[in-house]
Amino acid sequence: MVIDTLKCVGCSDCVVACQTENDVPIGYCRDWITETVNGEYPNVELELKSERCNHCENAPCVRCCPTGASHKIEGGIVLVTYNDCIGCGACIESCPYDARFQHPDGYIDKCTFCHHRLEKGQQPACVDVCPTKCMYFGDLDNPYSVVSKLLKTRNYKLLAPEAGTKPHVYYLI
Amino acid sequence: MQEELFVSGRDLPNIDPYLSVWHWPISVDLFFGGLAAGLLFFAALFYLLGKEKEMPAAVKLGPIVAPIGITIALICLFYDLTHKLYFWKLYLTFRIESPMSFGSWVLLFITPISFLWVFSYLREIFPSINFNNRLLISIESFAINKRRIMAILLIPLSISLGIYTGILLSAFNARPLWNNAILGPLFLTSGLTTASAIVVYLAKTTIELKLFNKILLGLLITQLFLMTHMILGYFAGSEVQLEALKLITGGEFTFLFFGVVIILGLIVPSIFIVFKIYNYKIPLIIPVLLILLGGLAFRFVMVDAGQLTRYLY
To answer: In CATH, what is the architecture of B24-308?
Structure first.
């Protein structure tokens, strides 16, 4: 996933779309908006961005899961099989992005990139609903996909790359 | 200057405003897991060295605490799971990369062995106990015959259990306070220390008391040495680890770490034990309780403070 921080206005539509699409319990969320202010007045810079599970290539949550409930499927999406999850919380502790949470039903939940929609050829709900079209979803292995082209032509950053997780959500800057 | 706020409101229970997924039962679990590991290690070691009669507290009496400790640890672990009915899924797979999977398999094997070990000595310790049940008698004779095999198994299993309690935390590089490779040996040493304290308290023979006083002192000094290395490791670490270190050097865990863990739990008992080694009369219960308190406090500091630390981005 590629998110253009220059286009994001922080409207939270992606958050609401996700909650509706995935029936996320009230008071919880799988994605969220952060507002970062850098510098000191009058030289300040504002950055808005939509954050979620980074579906890391080197996913610590998958590695530390004692039952294999957290797993990676073909294409690199990290999912949780709810009926294999014991709710130990190890994956929450292992995530440098704090992207996971304990669902009120006990299992651990997080962003799935709307895997159920992808299977139908649709885009994730957050991408579909974004009014400024700042979010892009696609196949990074395909050099002709929109996301690959954007990463070739624009400057981008990753969240906490020093954690060594090789995150797969890229922020255009 | 950088300031970040959640525009949409993240409001994830147990994560915001700070992570608190592992609560007090995890600290208690790690404490009793380490204590049981230490007791079983000494029991197996001195049995294999043929010191069963000279070291009754280490081989026979001390291990009584081990199955009780493991049971408490397991209850605490189970209590802290949020999807409890699926806990059996732990035993459908073995994942070498997951310390929790590794630890749960170690616990599966060490728990029955710890019960059998104690059972094999039960009538020796409490002669008034009389088994009227054939099944119990046959289990007892089986356990007595298999003591050597159990001891051989207990050495690697107890070391694994003791070291697992630290590796469980150090494997999470997302929590800078935990991401320190010394935690494995440190937790193992701490478990052995608390176990020696119990053995010292229960010691029946002078030889045993003298030997375990020396072992205990050695372990307390080793632990101080490892703690120093742990702190030096943070000092030499990246920004996130320096931030994490602030929690125990001036932050909200300073008193608990330096006051309770280091001074009351390690330095003061060391002084008491030195006096004891030089035959001064001191009430042993004081250093023993202080060591147990320090061991427990150490787990609380590491589990609670570790969850407050995170990557900055």
So the answer is: Up-down Bundle (1.20)
